[in-house]
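Hey L., structure's done. Input below.
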Amino acid sequence: LVESLCKHLGEMPQLITADSTTPLKRVTVAMIPTLTRRPQWIERLQGRTYMADECHHSTAPSYIKLRERLTPGRFLGLTATPISATGGGLGKHFTELIEGPPMRWLIDNGFLCDYLLYGAPAEIDTEGVTVRAGDYALNELEERVIKVSGNVLRDWRRFNPEGKSTICVGISVEHAHA
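Output:
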């Protein structure tokens, strides 16, 4: 982020980090937890445009409290995950949605690599799994997912005989270990 801001602004932004703070500039870069521990900066930064990366976390109480204290002139959120951790939308916090280019365009233009996607042939039985905050209870879902994982290594070798780089996705650390 800092490198990109330097390139497009032609100057280094102010940095507020856990270890140090550089002089005030037109643009300030800070992490939410760091800024909340430095209340002396809140007043100096009030009324500016507030830009939150990974803004799907902006529904968290710490983000909301900081945003209220900063009283931003504008609030811009950036994310590739347009729902909050509780499964809710971000419409309460943002009034407009600007969509980026489709994934296929990003692949075709060299921003992302192409991929092949494989999944377990078995369906996961979610009947009776508790739903909390709009999502399945992780511990209950984990038990059912692990049962249908199959032989990942055998299948990986069958579908990928050249041993190309691979990303495997699990629903939890325990599932990944299994």
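The CA atoms of residues 5 and 178 lie 42 Å apart. Residues 61-70 form the longest helix (10 residues).

-- N.
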